[in-house]
From TrEMBL, chains A, B:
UniProt cross-references to Pfam families, sorted A to Z: AP_endonuc_2
InterPro entries: IolE/XylAMocC-like, Xyl_isomerase-like_sf, Xyl_isomerase-like_TIM-brl
Sequence ranges assigned to domain Xylose isomerase-like TIM barrel in this UniProt record: 32-276
Organism name: Streptomyces aurantiacus JA 4570
Protein name per the record: Xylose isomerase-like TIM barrel domain-containing protein
Domain of life: Bacteria
Length: 286, 286
């Protein structure tokens, strides 16, 4: 007698996969793989969606019954130069339009680093330029039912990618605006080390400003450039149930997105990685 | 006619060089190079000093009129295992003895990361184990006129090297003990991104707990492993006059140590690097 086949793997209802986790999968294959695994949510990235066509992507994803949990990403709002600032604002308005077309209510923003090449070393001033840009963009987004989610990146990116380094800084920025316009995106990879982040996460949630929650694990050694070493869940040092419980206890009812940037995972079969990610989510984050 | 020779380069009186900056120089050559440049302070590391002999090193440095501004480093106090903890405490007592022999009043402590191999992901508990160890070590150090200086390392080292990631965490730990026993070591490389660090640095200084101030610049991209990319002053994004002025305004009268871990600098002639470091200090940190 052969043993009965195990039941097919089904993703938990709150699981969402960020497109970057399996960027080797073209959008139609990602959508099919999600259907096969019972995945109900997907976080999309602008570049592959633009390549596929915004309207076509919206139709494809909607047709499969997939919710678009976030669009990644707008931001990069720290330039001094007026022409460069104008270009950045226009690009962010385009991102907001794309989010609306895709049917997601959340656009993730990465602030940008110190302006390159002009010896500017003033982080507080750069953060204020981000605030100025948010004042411009938030009403435009609100008119299209899109919320801006400021994502703090790990302090190791403060110079060249994101001057907003802690969840507390991100929330302080968000709180200058209405909660249904500007909130935060909390990613465990960026905040796990921070003893202030748990309190801030709770506060953000109870005040309606936790607009997105993302997971990736912290693994060492960091790769050259520190960009593509976000670990598969369970491979590193982050206590995911701790973060999940914090958010859920405070009333967060939204999806939880797994977003991995990882050269080793990208080199593997995308469907296999997606299946593994669902299994790891069940084993390490539920 | 030949133009008159420029006056010889003399280091500012508050400049100290950490031995690691020019680790290619054997201790006697370092001492000679310091004398030639008018450098009055040096931060030493345990391993090269042990290799040379503690007593011999003390005699050599004292004979040259060099002040030992710090000894690096004790710490690594996060183990669970009783035998491993006992070994770590014994090693730290040895480090305190070495500091006393070398005539420095400051032993820099790096806390240690999460214990390897046991799936422990609890950062707050690891920090408490550091506090427990400090309670053991601080009186021993005080009896030998040595102060323990807790050094927060950049959050990118939280998992595998140092669970104390911010100056505020370090000061919170220190404040459980008398100020003349336990304080902090502030290194710009580790704290420059942190919007809370300026206030904490001022508070630490006015309460007599800034036991050491170190400089290194932040440069990108980070190298693989993120350990040996500390930039030469002026090559990166850190505003040194800002940090120097904060400390001096709050009453810090101690030396300022330049501590670079940098493969490129280590591959060059050590005397040339030391001369460059003094020039950069004058140009970028005064």
């Amino acid at each position: 007698m052969t043993p009965p086949a195990p039941p097919p793997l089904r993703a938990p209802a709150d699981f969402s996969v960020n497109q970057m986790t399996v960027k080797q999968l073209p959008l139609p294959e990602l959508v099919t793989a999600c259907a096969d695994l019972g995945i109900r949510g997907v976080g999309l990235w602008r570049e592959p969606v633009q390549e596929y066509g915004i309207e076509a992507a919206a139709k494809l994803v909607r047709g499969a019954g997939l919710a678009v949990t976030t669009l990644c990403r707008g931001g990069f709002l720290t330039a001094h130069d007026p022409a460069e600032r104008a270009r950045a604002l226009a690009d962010n308005r385009a991102a907001i339009d794309e989010a609306a077309t895709l049917g997601t209510d959340t656009l993730v923003l990465v602030s940008g680093g110190l302006p390159a090449g002009d010896q500017d070393r003033d982080l507080p001033a750069a953060r204020e330029r981000v605030a100025d840009a948010l004042a411009d963009l938030a009403p435009y987004a609100a008119d299209r039912a899109v919320r801006l989610a400021i994502e703090p990146l790990h302090p190791m990116y403060a110079a060249d990618r994101c001057v907003v380094s802690t969840l507390t800084q991100a929330l302080d920025l968000a709180e200058r605006f209405p909660a249904d316009q500007v909130g935060v995106c909390a990613d465990t990879y960026h905040i796990w080390w921070d003893d202030q982040a748990p309190t801030t996460l709770t506060h953000a949630t109870t005040t309606g400003r936790l607009h997105a929650l993302q997971l990736a694990d912290w693994t060492t050694p960091l790769p050259h450039g520190a960009l593509t070493g976000r670990g598969q869940l369970g491979d590193g040092t982050i206590d995911f149930p701790h973060w999940r419980t914090l958010a859920r206890s405070a009333g967060y009812t939204g999806p939880i997105e797994v977003e991995l940037f990882n050269d080793t995972l990208w080199a593997r079969d995308g469907r296999e990685v997606l299946t593994e990610t669902v299994r790891r989510y069940v084993a390490h984050a539920c």
